Amino acid sequence: xxxxxxxxxxxxxxxxxxxxxxxxxxxxxxxxxxxxxxxxxxxxxxxxxxxxxxxxxxxxxxxxxxxxxxxxxxxxxxxxxxxxxxxxxxxxxxxxxxxxxxxxxxxxxxxxxxxxxxxxxxxxxxxxxxxxxxxxxxxxxxxxxxxxxxxxxxxxxxxxxxxxxxxxxxxxxxxxxxxxxxxxxxxxxxxxxxxxxxxxxxxxxxxxxxxxxxxxxxxxxxxxxxxxxxxxxxxxx
Length: 237
What we know:
Radius of gyration: 51 Å
Distance between the termini: 101 Å
Largest sheet: 5 strands, antiparallel
Shape: rod-shaped
Strand order of the largest sheet: 1-2-4-8-6
Helix content: 25-40%
Structural class: alpha+beta
Number of strands: 10
Low-confidence stretches: 148-156, 158-171
């Protein structure tokens, strides 16, 4: 919201300070000369110890603009309800082209003289400071490492399954030698069992033939049975 006078256009008409404790805060005013004359201005405040105005006096040339910076000194305490009663008054008056900022005096804005003087009252408001940007969620940056996730139907995403597969490759490679030894021992054990079963079958056939020919168990058969038992026990162990 701006002020539109006959001499100057002032923007904004309300000085807004993003209030923060123990920190200087500045805002700017833009003065626009709407005339073909030189316009002198002066800025006053109800609390001069609290604010610094640069420049507080000056001259705006015809059809040009001038920026005024208002700085609030660092405050140690926050005002009740964040309300501010401070006010500013900007006075303006037509002056001669030869007038400079150093030539501006309070008498130029006196209403006793015939000078045309405009006054604009500026309010002060405290607003919340700008919020810092929200932190970026993990995994959203480019180049970030993929994270394991499971979809609603229980299947794993492709990128995640690739990561899990790589995690299992190293243990398999490290245990390949052990698996080869176990496989070899298993094959040898199975071969021993097959040979033992074959010997048992041959002894059973031999026993039947001897039984048919002699009707009894000969002593040599008992010896063979004992030898086979010893061999079987050794192989199984």
